[in-house]
Amino acid sequence: MVPGVRRTNMDTMVHKVCPLSWLLQHLHQLPKRKCLKRLSQGCAGVNYRETVGPDSQLLNQSFIGSDFLKLQPLTNLKWYDYCFSEVVPGRIVRSLNELEAILPSVQRDKTIVLVSLFDAEKMFIRNLLCHFENLDTQNHIFIGSGSELFYDLARRGHPVIDADMFIKSKASYTDSVKEAYVVEKCLELGYSAWVFSSKVLLVDKGLLLDRIRSEEYDFYIGESSGVLIVQSSLATQKLWSNELMPSIVSSATKNPSPQHGLDFIHLVKELLEQKGKKVRTVETMSIAENINVRSVNQWLEDGLDGKPVVYWSHEVDSNTIQTKLVELDLWLVDDDLSCKAVICQSV
After folding, report:
1. DSSP string, 20-47
2. What tens digit of pLDDT does each residue of 159-184 get?
3. Which branch of life, at top level (predicted)?
4. Fewer CB under 10 Å: which end of the chain, C or N?
């Protein structure tokens, strides 16, 4: 990220500059308040055409004052990525009020992607971020335990929910309850919620959206894949707040489980079935593929076969998963865990 970078036409960035001796001479001779005006006159023979200097089109005349040359703190500067898209660092959610304030700026097309990063490994998080950049997925928010890796995501401009500080009360809430509260807040604001565990990789956002829109279900659940999709509606919001939320809090408090993401999704599926609600199973929709099931030859022959989501089991070791993702051309990071390519999306 580059602080204070301005979108500028390349023609205005390539120009002749005055000799350094000329600049130092006039800076030394002129009063501070007059030096900016004099500097804008430029060198003889150079036609700036109002492209540089304090009288150019790039600066507002009313902004120029005695404090113009003061160095501003980094917190006051805007930040941009390599594609000159603005980045907002430091978005860390620690309460429901902060969550409600941040979600409107995160959502796209009335949808929030909640990614659970409990027990996630650094290399898979970095690979996921590269996929999000390729897909131009800007409506994601991460939830997980506070750590240096977790706060590094916030410094890079990704909104995060600190589960260690989120929903503080006398009761010891599990991570499942905290994820449920995030979904509830999304529905209250009129947003659909896509919940992915750390073992899930979204590879085609448009295709997944098309599959969901072609169905008429409020809930799409993949217990094996670690996917939960809750469609926004007034009926869904009331069901979640009035019936599911109290049961989730009660069940999770009585039966805490070490498996974070899958435990939450399993709990939601179980409660919906108990209440007789219609649920669409992700694994039967042909939208998610377990990369551990097929052999290398089958992958080379069929590829993903139109699956917008891939996932893997918790039991499989990291090296095996990485090898599979490399074979599928889904491993987008290099040895230092940086994206192999920077793809700038058209505005």
Report:
1. HHHHHHHHHHS-HHHHHHHHTT--TT--
2. 999 998 887 765 667 888 999 999 99
3. Eukaryota
4. C
